[in-house]
Write a structure and sequence with these properties.
The complex is a heterodimer of chains A (331) and B (427). Chain A has 331 residues and is α/β, with parallel strands linked by helices. Chain A has 12 helices and 14 strands. The longest helix of chain A is centred in the N-terminal third of the chain and has 15 residues. Chain B is built from 10 helices and 18 strands. The chains are: A alpha/beta (331), B alpha+beta (427).
């Protein structure tokens, strides 16, 4: 086992996959000599050279399209988009090409491409650079969307993504890059399957579901509630499409209460989808309606107090949990 | 145009009604005010009157069958009109498996265009009446898991309507867990998730009649939630028995009972003691203007408590006549809803069963009930002598939220005074 950061876990996964399979190559803005805006590709340009670690012009539509073409022809591109906000100029390539080609070609051609990109907010990057748009992609058949919250999952799921034959949107988070954790030592075959949520804390009183960085917030909320004797079960979705609603349902069956937190907007969000599925499968298990917490329904403000007010911070998640529990005569 | 006739809300606690019998059959015309059917509710057999005129096209729920509140029970329309072809579909639809829990929804069913309103007196009875009945019409909101747990534990949640811990009184899991812990469930060691305890092998299981269900729920609720206290006394009935004999000898053929004298005495005593004649309702006291005395009547299987109105304003003879009529109709199942609700006090007399003494459960929202044992001759010291007197033991059960021990004692003292100086009953 090795203690590493989330960033380093991603770097190792890329390094191992580049070493394992020479069809794998990286593409993105400033990922070579500059080692990427968040240093995820540190050292790889030097190790594998400019053919395998390719720097691109500032043209997301162009290089995502190039990645799709390479994937169709049998390579395994890992495309970095500096933040998820910049994927918007490549939407036609992602939604109308990457996600559709396997279907449009009658299953004869696949697009085994990974798009790595961080989302998240909290550094006063304001409305256009603070978004969590993963739910848009998770609503698109033909895509796979994952958003690991732990170091080990970042490592194992990136390897799974690169080996997957479908286009995968691999969502990272700006705040997670410095998170510490452990990963197995140099294990070429360590992968984490898609479509399997993780119960990261067990409890009987409330099911709190989250993905990506919000899982860390959820764990802190669970600690706070535990001081009042409430045991929260925290579920890390890890994978948004395919979505593991079964693990969530199993938990709600036990706790009878569910709260979903996410960094994006609640409306039409991950929580909306999950709430619908919980109500469908767990209707007779529920002690109160499923609740959601997300970013305030506004473009992210620049001013620090307003940004804090808009973020789904621990305080908001905890307040929602307490309200829900109070409605159930608990707390 | 054919319209659906739906099961009306004839009592504030009914969830289902059973058609006693249809008085108008398919093809029969009816006018406004005609009795269409007799419907058995959880409390009584009621008449279901037509709100306007029409013809019965099709009966969907036949004699002896049950339907949920608001469920269609017949199709009505113009003479000669055909019932729509899909009427059979409605007919085959059985009473919904899950009880209709939301009485607010049930209330909505009544003013629907197709619905006929029940007869006026019943409609009036469904609204909170003047003597402090409240809470009965609160919507029963239950979270799904709480409902499932209550079903499994065999707990009737209706008495808790509107008083759960959730928003707007929703009953939630924690409430049911508490009920189960407090013994609301039928003594199940396994807790909420355990299936109902199996009866001994060989026992025959029978469903409760709506009336027995209502009695079970009301009494369990009363004994669990009303803080009862008990005051006991012994009343010398010698002079009351003499008065009764004198009255019966004088009144040609009419027979006044001891119970009539007790009812009269209670009515007078209640008016004397307003603090023992009030109900505790949602944190307030409802003071009663008149003594509306419930008289417990045992049936072959069950009991019913018709209410004698304004007993404080009536003579012993009038009380006697009205009581005889109420008791006779109670035994025939012919009481109307309004005759069995809205009491302010109950007298339960088991003297005829050779009972020395017993304690009765209060019938909410009343706040007291008098349990009357048998009258027996006993040797007692009187003025230094030993005499044989007819003694009767009584126990008054009181709701401590409505009155104090002293209030209850004073009330009982007055009852005793009136019965031991019975000419006062004629005053």
């Amino acid at each position: 086992m090795a203690d590493v950061t989330y960033r380093e876990a991603l770097r190792r996964a890329l390094d191992e996959e580049l070493g394992r399979d020479d069809r794998v190559f990286l593409m993105g803005e400033e990922i070579g000599r500059f080692e990427g805006s968040y240093k995820v590709t540190a050292g790889l340009w030097e190790k594998y050279g400019p053919r395998r670690v390719r720097e691109t012009p500032i043209s997301e539509g162009g290089f995502v399209g190039a990645g799709i073409g390479a994937a169709m022809m049998g390579l395994r591109p890992v495309v970095e988009i500096m933040t998820i906000n910049f994927i918007l100029v490549a939407m036609d390539q992602v939604i109308n090409h990457a996600a559709k080609i396997h279907y449009m070609f009658g299953g004869t051609v696949a697009v085994p491409m990974v798009i790595r990109t961080p989302g998240g907010a909290g550094a006063q990057l304001t409305a256009q650079h603070s978004q969590s748009l993963e739910a848009w992609f998770a609503g698109t058949p033909g895509m796979k969307v994952v958003a690991p919250s732990s170091v080990a999952d970042a490592y194992g799921m990136l390897k799974t993504a690169i080996r997957d034959d479908d286009p995968v949107l691999f969502c990272e988070n700006l705040v997670l890059y410095n998170l510490s954790g452990t990963i197995p030592d140099e294990d070429e075959d360590y992968t984490v399957p898609f479509g399997k949520a993780a119960v990261v804390r067990e409890g009987d009183d409330l099911t709190l579901v989250a993905h990506s960085y919000t899982v860390q917030r959820a764990l802190r909320v669970a600690d706070a509630l535990a001081r009042d004797g409430v045991e929260t079960e925290v579920i890390d979705l890890r994978s948004l499409r395919p979505l593991d609603a079964e693990t969530v349902a199993e938990s709600v069956h036990k706790t009878n209460r569910a709260l979903i937190a996410e960094e994006g907007w609640s409306t039409y969000g991950v929580g909306s989808e999950l709430a619908a599925r919980i109500h469908r499968v767990c209707f007779d298990d529920l002690d109160a309606p499923v609740e959601r917490v997300g970013q305030a329904e506004v473009p992210m403000p620049y001013a620090k107090p307003l940004e804090l007010a808009a973020l789904p911070l621990e305080s908001k998640i905890e307040a929602a949990a307490r309200n829900l529990l109070a409605d159930c005569g608990v707390l | 145009m054919a319209e659906e006739l739906v099961m009306p809300r004839l009592s504030d606690t009914m969830e289902q009604g059973t058609i006693g019998r249809w008085l108008k059959r398919e093809g029969d015309a009816f006018a406004e005010g005609d009795v269409l059917a007799e419907i058995e509710t959880d409390k009584a057999l009621m008449e279901f009157q037509a709100y306007d005129s029409g013809t019965v096209l099709k009966i969907l729920v036949d004699d002896g069958e049950s339907a949920d509140l608001g469920a269609p029970i017949a199709l009505v329309g113009e003479a000669g009109e055909q019932a729509p072809a899909d009427a059979g579909k409605a007919e085959k639809k059985p009473a919904k498996k899950r009880k209709r829990e939301d009485s607010a929804a049930a209330e909505e069913a009544a003013p629907a265009p197709a619905a006929r309103e029940p007869e006026a007196p019943v409609r009036a009875a469904a609204a909170p009446s003047g003597n402090g009945r409240a809470g009965g019409s609160a919507a029963l909101r239950v979270s799904p898991i709480a409902r499932r747990m209550a079903d499994q534990a065999g707990i009737d949640l209706a008495p808790l309507a509107g008083r759960g811990s959730g928003p707007e009184g929703r009953i939630v899991k924690a409430d049911v867990e508490r009920l189960v812990k407090d013994g609301g469930a039928a003594e199940q060691p396994g807790g909420a998730d355990a299936p109902a305890a199996a009866p001994p092998a060989g026992s025959e299981l029978r469903d409760l009649t709506p009336m027995l269900k209502a009695v079970a729920a009301r009494m369990a609720h009363s004994k669990q939630t009303v803080p009862h206290f008990y005051v006991e006394s012994e009343i010398d009935m010698t002079r009351a028995l003499e008065l009764r004999k004198e009255l019966n000898d004088g009144l040609d053929g009419e027979r006044v009972s001891v119970n009539d004298l007790i009812v009269r005495a209670c009515a007078m005593a209640l008016i004397d003691h307003p603090q023992a004649h009030r109900s505790y309702v949602d944190g307030r006291h409802a003071y009663h203007a008149h003594a509306d005395i419930g008289i417990a009547v045992a049936l072959d299987d069950g009991l019913v408590v018709p209410v004698l109105r304004e007993a404080d304003t009536k003579s012993v003879r009038q009380i006697s006549r009205e009581t005889k009529d109420l008791v006779a109709r109670a035994r025939d199942g012919q009481l109307r809803q309004r005759e069995i609700e809205g009491g302010t006090f109950t007298v339960s007399n088991m003297g005829m069963f050779d009972v020395a003494n017993f304690e009765a459960i209060i019938n909410p929202p009343e706040s007291a009930i008098l349990a009357v044992g048998g009258t027996v001759p006993r040797a007692v010291p009187v003025d230094g002598d030993i005499r044989v007197r007819s003694l009767m033991r009584v126990t008054l059960s009181c709701d401590h939220r409505a009155c104090s021990g002293a209030d209850g004692a004073k009330l009982l003292q007055s009852v005793k005074r009136y019965l031991q100086a019975p000419s006062l009953l004629l005053a």
